[in-house]
UniProtKB/TrEMBL annotation:
Origin: domain of life: Bacteria
InterPro entries in the record: Dimeric_a/b-barrel, YCII
Annotated TM spans: none
Residue span, YCII-related domain: 1-115
Family annotation (Gene3D superfamilies): Dimeric alpha+beta barrel
Family of this protein: Belongs to the YciI family.
Protein name from the UniProt record: YciI family protein
Length: 120
């Protein structure tokens, strides 16, 4: 089963770029990547650029509307994701707990919808 781990963090709590703490955090991300790859569970994973680069889209009254940025009123921003193919939720939780920003952010796990289940 595939799970997406959505990585939310408060940028004010993240280590500053170029510091030893930032380098240690990145080494932690590299370690998660390697653990998922070695176990054959990594489907995809990347960081996202900041919310200031986001564009939101919606259709209202048949017209496409776009606006800058997200609308969530929260200090935590979606900063990256992993998609992993694992046997169960417990395995997904094991790898999500390895994500370095979990101690100061939130990792949301969601099963990926399977629109083509085997045998159908």
């Amino acid at each position: 089963m595939q799970y997406m781990a959505l990585i939310y963090t408060d940028p004010a709590l993240e280590p500053a770029w170029g510091t030893p703490e930032f380098d240690a955090m990145m080494q932690g991300y590299f370690a998660v990547n390697e653990a998922l790859k070695a176990a054959g569970h990594l489907v995809a994973g990347d960081g996202l650029q900041g919310v200031e680069t986001a564009v939101s889209l919606r259709i209202r009254g048949g017209k496409v509307e776009t606006m800058d940025g997200p609308f969530a009123e929260t200090k935590e921003h979606l900063g990256g994701y992993y998609i992993m193919d694992v046997p169960d939720l417990d395995t997904a939780l094991k790898y999500a707990a390895m994500i370095p920003s979990a101690p100061y952010g939130t990792i949301e796990l969601r099963p990926v919808m399977d629109y083509n289940p085997a045998g159908n």
